[in-house]
Protein 1
Amino acid sequence: MVNDISRENRTLKEELEKLKSVRNKEKNKKLDKNLCITGLISDESDKENLQNKLHSLFQASEVTVPESEYKVLENIETRNGMKTVISLQNKDKKYVILKTRAKKGKITISSVGVGDENTPIFINEDMSKDTYTLFKKAKDLKNMDYKHVWHRDGKILARKNDDDKPVHIKNEAMLDELLG
């Protein structure tokens, strides 16, 4: 009887993980055109200049993004200032912005021309809370011989070496195995 209950418990846990995974994929799909920009504005008083700052950021990044092609969804207070979440008209534009940002390297308030501080500006894909939590935990892999840990399209990926095939970390159980 104990074995039956134990087996049923394992089955229920597996089914619950599958349901969580499906729910998380759906949440990430809704965010697939969104970007999070942190450091562009520092507090509520900066919100009135947000459109001008976004325009300057895109111009400094050498990406043409007319105001009609994005919508500011929300500004969220974080430890490092404010995070601005924008939704673009299409995913392709998001990838162009991310690729250009990667080529540019470090972007600061002063390099964008909207202030004289060296405050860094970060541009990242938006992700669900569950994915974000798993990604933060997955960063511990960098202490375990993994050279790269990153996220793309709601997926968390890790690679030990540049030539290795990336590992797709789907859930905490898989991450625990890798950290094991």
Note: Strands lie at 34-38, 70-78, 81-88, 107-108, 120-125, 148-152, 155-159, 167-169.
Protein 2
Amino acid sequence: MKTRLVLTMCGVAILGLAAEARAQTSSSLTQAPADEAAAEVETIVVTARRSGAPMWTVTAGDSTVLLVGAIDGVPRSVAWRPDALEAATLRADRILLGTGVQGSLGDILRLIWRSRTLTRLPEGRTSADYLSPEWQARLDALEARYRVDHSRKSFLLSSRDLLTDQLDFDRDTADDAGDVVRRAARKARIPVRAVTGGRGDQLVEDLLTAPPERLVPCMQAAIEATEAGAGPVQQRGEDWTRFRVRAVLDSPLEKALGRCWPWGDPTIGPQLRAAWIEGIDKALAEPGVTMAVAPLNLVGGEDGVLDRLKAKGLEVSGPDWR
């Protein structure tokens, strides 16, 4: 588990560098007349909405953004048809996909060198030093049920263990919206841009120096999601394919993912959020069609991207997110 966590953190920097490289790809497309382009956008919208991935259309003059709300860990048992989303991707002029990090080999090596800081609580401390008696008792009950010990593990590691090892939310999963769009864009040579959410050294510094107290809300949400069991995980996936946005955002698992690192981190989370808002604003200043695949909790959550775009007076159409 320790190795898996370190590799996950290293992967953040590696994926960021890879995304930055992919963003160098470019293509030139001939712009259609206004009425013809509008009909084409409408076709994309109708097609993509049959895909099972909630999508909104945002227009500003001659610019259109198709904003797809993605979730992690869609169960394979949940039926959805990604072929329609793939077809819609092929009609876009450019893609915004994933959050990149400007990292370096030194950042990765620092994570590996300091891995104990990421996996253990401070020397001489246990989870009971940070959780209230009520929450500690609930954690103790889960430890007894699954025969594990989280007393000395860092909350970063313990929260992921609860969600992945005990709740199994990310096992036996189908392709998510980002996977589908990435493959289709690569095959069609559609330019892909990663939304850069910060520097690798900042990310590493935050991981290594964040006090355990900062992760208490994440730990509490992970305990609640694990207590709820696998049923809500399945329901979350089904709600996502049926565009029940509010139900997905209110699910115990989605709440936990939104309160944990990186989105729930008070330092990294706002940087990622600001990077996505800036990226979508730039896309709305470019003519043509941009498809953006962003986390659903960022898109439809409270004061999320959709709320902000609507407040600006832009035309937003798609599933109800409020």
Note: Residues 2-22 form the longest helix (21 residues).
Protein 3
Amino acid sequence: MRDHIPVVVQGRGRRARRAGLVGVLWAAAELTVTVGVVVLLLVVHQVWWTNRQAVAAAREEVRALERAWGDDPGSGPSPSEPPLDSRPSLSPSPSPFSSASASSSSPSSPAARPAAGPSAVRERAYAVLRIPRLGLVVPVAQGIDKRAVLDKGYVGQYPGTAGPGAQGNFALAGHRNTHGEPFRYVNRLRAGDELIVDMRGRRYTYVVGRTLSETTERDTGVIAPVPRSVVKPGYGYSEPGAYITLTTCTPEYSSKYRLVVWGTLRPGP
């Protein structure tokens, strides 16, 4: 009787291992594609959809303000408005600059006091900022809270800073990217460009004078009553006056530094 010698088929084992490896790689590829699609959708939502929503809401707020004003902004006497408070209680979220170093230099002047009242009132827009060079028309609200103000596509006034047209520094913050990105192109502003602020029955025109392309988020001097960088002392002003300050993040899609644009109030007729 012949002995039966078992035959070992090595090729079949290799094919099984190869098939298993292919399955693992395929599953990994599917997972990578799925994660990529999810990330892409999140980016589209953040960069595109939030912009559409915020821009639409901001435009409607501007229209609502102009309807409430009744006339062309800046024309005629100022009708009575709610009392204004130079010490708003709205607590901003972590922001580009602390408001502690800036205060209104003329608290007794109505134009120097930001809008007040309940938080819902403070979060509503009370003015419109127009920048002809950029084709920008955007509402201005009290405070720089992200959810309540900035993420709506509004520009927010730093608490404690001077109001439009007043002595001191009317300091504003706005997103550069996403949520309406009203300040995306403020880096294109040049000396002599106009920054127009409309309120009920009043119009204030500022003229861009100086810019600071980059400073730290702790450079509180740029929103002081006499704005001057404490990080780069060569930038800013040294004399009291009526100023406007625009601040936003830089470089684009980053919040590492701050970009600053300053202007001075053009004397009225």
Note: The mean pLDDT is 79.
Protein 4
Amino acid sequence: MFSNGVVPGLTHIVEALTEEGDGVVIQSPVYPPFHELVTGLKRELLDAPLRQVDGRYEMDFDALDTQMRKAKLFLLCSPHNPVGRVWTESELKQVVELARRHDVILVADEIHADLTYPSQRHTALNRLDDNVITVSAPSKAFNIAGLFASYIICPDGAMRKRITQVQNKHHVLPTPFANTAIIAAYTDSRAERWLDQLTAELEEQATYLVNRFNEELPQLKTFLPEASYLLWIDFAALDLEPEARKKWLHEEVRLFLSPGGPFGESGQTFERINFGTSRAVLDEAFKRLTEHADGKAFV
């Protein structure tokens, strides 16, 4: 099914398949629209926060089990934005098992899947359960977000009918540019070659940046991503409240990052940086951060 964006697609699915007051599970820290669309539709936001284990984020399956008992639907971000995890098949099988046990609808946002690094392996959730609804788009991987070209894969006919009714209410219509771009992204061999080069460069860029943080700014904790172009950085050692940290970054460092607060309570000390740019730009950003951090007192 065509959708005019992944977030609109997720919103229309939640609107179609749940009622006001129904529980929807998310795993914070997660892309802010996950929070916003659930509360905006007056559904109950049920958070099963990810855990930090040995410098890596993992799912908390006990928390997930608890929240799914009260839920109608689960929004999975796979690969995860902002922490960069590519969930293993074993982890995803546990998600499917819990959803089946508690009769929860599984919806997977897989927009970053095409940007999985060569060293990793993405498992599409609908390979593990035929009832999974998948929402995705070529917009991240092929840099065509402005075309609003995305799609929903919904195998269940009854659910698909209800989603279509909501989409019709909101006048969701494809454009010839969007359709053409989706087809080209997924069928043109040149696009495939370009994507292979891109993911290799992104993995190299991520490794370079995390190594520099570990060597030159170890006070700021980073998490090596496994997909995409986003780095999640913990500024807790700076001991600044979010607004003070934002002011320092903007006015002194001259870096404009994505503040972590909107990603969830556990993101309050974090900033998200987009490293999908040239090495020269990254080096300049790191230089500014290092120069201004040298004079700060870390806790």
Note: The CA atoms of residues 4 and 262 lie 23 Å apart.
